[in-house]
Q: What sequence folds into this?
C-alpha cells in the first residue's frame, strides 16, 4: 500500500485487567505509534471494558508490521481477553498480524467492509 494508508485503529478489550489491556496496546505501538491514552491510566475503578485508539500517524520506519513483533517482549496476559479491532482493512490486518506474532490468537468474528472493518479476537496467555 502507499505511504498514505489510513492506519487509525480503535480497540476494545474485555475479560482482563488494565495491565492486560496495556500489554496489548504496547504490542501494537511499533506498528501504530503511541495510543491516545493507555487503558486504565485515568480509571481507578475496576473497569470491565478497556479502550484505546491509535491516530493516523504511524511510527518512523513506515509502520511496517515487524517480524515477530520485532522481538517485542510483552509482560504477558493474566487471562484470556476478548479484543475488538476497528479501522481500515489495512489497519485491522496489521493489528491482527502483530497480535498473532505476540499472543495465541483465535478469530471469533469479522465484519468486513471496504472502508472500515471490525474483527473480534480472543487472545490467550
A:
Amino acid at each position: 500500500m502507499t505511504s498514505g494508508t489510513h492506519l487509525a485503529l480503535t480497540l476494545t478489550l474485555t475479560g482482563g485487567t488494565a495491565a492486560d489491556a496495556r500489554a496489548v496496546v504496547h504490542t501494537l505501538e511499533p506498528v501504530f505509534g503511541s495510543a491516545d491514552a493507555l487503558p486504565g491510566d485515568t480509571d481507578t475503578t475496576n473497569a470491565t471494558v478497556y479502550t484505546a485508539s491509535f491516530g493516523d500517524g504511524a511510527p518512523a520506519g513506515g509502520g511496517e508490521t515487524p517480524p515477530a513483533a520485532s522481538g517485542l517482549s510483552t509482560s504477558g496476559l493474566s487471562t484470556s481477553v476478548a479484543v475488538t479491532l476497528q479501522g481500515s482493512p489495512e489497519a485491522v490486518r496489521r493489528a491482527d498480524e502483530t497480535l498473532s506474532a505476540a499472543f495465541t490468537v483465535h478469530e471469533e468474528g469479522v465484519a468486513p467492509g471496504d472502508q472500515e472493518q471490525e474483527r473480534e479476537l480472543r487472545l490467550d496467555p
Remarks:
- The two ends are 32 Å apart (CA to CA).
- DSSP finds two helices and five strands in the chain.
- Strands lie at 9-14, 49-54, 81-87, 104-111, 117-124.
